[in-house]
Amino acid sequence: MPSLEDRKLIHQREKEHFGGMKFGSAFFGWLTATGMFVLLSALVGAIAGAFGYGANLSTSDLASGSTEAQSTGITAAVVLGVILLVSYYAGGYVAGRMARFSGVKQGVAVWLWAVIIAIVLAVVGFIIGNQANVTERFQGLGVPSAQDLTGPGLIGLLVVAAIALVGAILGGLVGMRYHRKIDRTDFDALEDAG
Description:
Number of helices: 7
Transmembrane segments: 27-53, 73-96, 108-129, 149-174
Shape: elongated
Oligomer: single chain
Keywords: Membrane, Transmembrane, Transmembrane helix
């Protein structure tokens, strides 16, 4: 019959052997986060379109910064922030469940995959962008141009990165804790049997 100290020792040995950042599980967490973000964004966009939210805004409203355009922009930013948080929470959860240990590290690894992929895509876009005007095609999708990344643009980028990081870490912690419940149940069953 294992004691509480035996449980802690076994858990510590498992963590030493199998713990740490697992980039394989984090990659699948990133895929989950990306897929979830695309699906939720499409769903919210379809709902907003069905109810005509923001449909009465003209280009002059957007250019002048009318109060309706500002409120629509703030609402869209909040909704996209929530979608981003939920998506990276799901990605961190997947990585935490797959890796079993180090939930915070798994969440950070999911976020790092997002940063790495973004950098690679930016470099590829920069290299071929001048040849095929690729960067101009992405402007309609909300991808910021180099001119947009000034003060407010950089702050917005940092906020997005922070939201994704917090969501991924929280998801990684919850995914890891699932395994702690299983471990406790196993040890409790051994104690009851002994």
